Amino acid sequence: QVQLVESGGGLVQAGESLRLSCAASGVIFSDGTTGWYRQAPGKQRELVALITKTGGTIYGEFVKGRFTISRDNAKNTVYLQMNSLKPEDTAVYYCWANAWGQGTQVTVSA
């Protein structure tokens, strides 16, 4: 059974940074693709970033160089470093690897 646990969300001001973490049991991140998605109130869930088995990365268009997805194979943890946060980045951020985590709230104030 796959279990994903996100952490690191919180309330920050515009321009500040956060690092989200996704820890897993029941799945080895380096065996496949892992993604971060987000969902804002009243909006559809959207892709933020993916990291593939070989370490390739894909980002949503809105990221524009502000976010970085990475993976620590020894800890079986995937991270999302978010810099230059904007109020429009406010959302619940979810980790995905064959299952969804419970999400972590990110709120960016103006």
Your description of this structure?
This protein has 110 residues and is mostly beta strands. The protein has no helices and ten strands. It has strands at residues 3-7, 10-13, 18-25, 34-39, 46-51, 57-59, 67-72, 77-82, 91-96, 104-109. Strands 2-10-9-4-5-6 form a six-stranded mixed sheet, with no helix packed on it. The protein has a four-stranded antiparallel sheet with strand order 1-3-8-7, with no helix packed on it. A hairpin with a 4-residue loop joins β7 and β8. It is globular, with a radius of gyration of 13 Å. The mean pLDDT is 97.
Attribute tags:
10 strands, single chain, 110 residues, mainly beta, four-stranded antiparallel sheet, 0% helix
Helix and strand element order: EEEEEEEEEE
Query: Whole-Å distance between the termini?
Result: 40 Å
Cα radius of gyration in angstroms? 13 Å
Q: Describe the global form.
A: globular
Low-confidence stretches: none
- Quickly count the helices: 0
**Residue share in helices?**
under 10%
Number of strand elements: 10
- Strand line-up of the largest beta sheet: 2-10-9-4-5-6
Content of β-strand: over 45%
Oligomer: single chain
Give the integer mean of the pLDDT values.
97
How would you characterize the largest beta sheet?
A: 6 strands, mixed
Look at the helices and sheets and give the structural class: mainly beta
